[in-house]
Structure formats: structure tokens, C-alpha cells
Amino acid sequence: MGFFDSLKNSAVSSLKNSAGSAAGNAFYNATGGNKDGVGKGKNSSQTFTFSAIPNSVAELQALPEVSLDSPFKTTALVLLVLCNYERSIIERTESTHEMLNFLKGPESLSGYEKSFIKERLSGKYYKPFSYFAGATVENGYTPTEPFTITVYENPYSFDNENWATMWVKSSGADTEREVKLRRKPSTNQWFLNEILCLSDIRTPAAEDPWA
Length: 211
What we know:
This protein is about 35% helix and about 15% strand. By secondary structure, it is α+β, with helices and mostly antiparallel strands. It has one domain. The radius of gyration is 19 Å and the shape is globular.
């Protein structure tokens, strides 16, 4: 491939990327901000409060946020459901998978995703709890009840049409972390696509030999 061919391909790729971003922003603006629980592409947030952690799909479906009509709601439910993975009990692990499958909509957790969650949470079940209000390193990431979580967006959360990257803040980390979602246009529901918020956080004080 000659120099001018490479230059041409680079220009075409740039135009496609710009078009994709423009389409995403157009969709984002077209939602009118509050129409579907979506903000204005800035640094807005929504806070959710839950009386308990669901232990089954039936309990999950009883929550008003299960409408999944905003990426904020779905993200909050994802973190809440992950708290059910607290102990290495087969039944509880399976119920967590079932609830996550519900939040994934048309898709189901792959074998890789199940292994990923197990690897990230094994012996560190406190991770999802760290995203809820009141959880600290000092108290072993024990949140206050009722369980309260805040979900954030930023100017790039909706760069691609029907896709969203939402952010949550762990009290054991210095920066916010991601949850990716995909919108199903026919139902206007936002479903879980990828969990990117389970990296290690600071060790609870009671388990840290250097604390």
C-alpha cells in the first residue's frame, strides 16, 4: 500500500469515527435528558436506595428500578445483585448468575464472564459493597442500611448510539469505575453488557497486616 493510499484510508477511518460519535451524541440529545432517565452528557448522577439485597430474580423483579428504562437504574441494580455473591454458597452463586442474566436481557452470562466474576470476588466479596454509602476501609466495607448507591455519567457516556458507559465510585479506590450497557430500542430498556468495576480495592483494615 502506497503512502497516499494509507493517507486516504486514515481519513476515511477518521470520518467514520466522527460520524459514529455524532450519531451517539444525536441520540443522546434526542432523549431530552430526563425523558428516559438519561442526563445531559455532563457530570450528572442519580442516587438509588434499596431496603434489601435481592436473593432471587423474583425479588429483583419486585423493585421499581427493574423497568430498566435508564442506564442509571440498570447500573445500580447490577451492583446490588453482585452483593448477593457474598459467600461461596452454590445456591447463592447460581441465584446471582440468574439475576445478572435477567439484567443482560437478550444475552446470558458466558462461561468466561462467570469465571471472571468468581476470580474477582473470591475471598473479596466486599468489593460490590464498597460502592454503597457508609462503606469504608475501616468498617470492612459495611454499608449503612437502607443500601444507597450513586451512579454517574460523564460527557462521553453516550458517545455511541444505544450504548452507555456509566460510572460508580468505590470507597476503596481513588477513581470511578465503569459498567457498560446496551439499549434495546424496541423496548427502550438498558441491559448489562460488561462489568468493569471489580478490580482490586484497598484491603479492609481488619484484613490488612500493615494497617
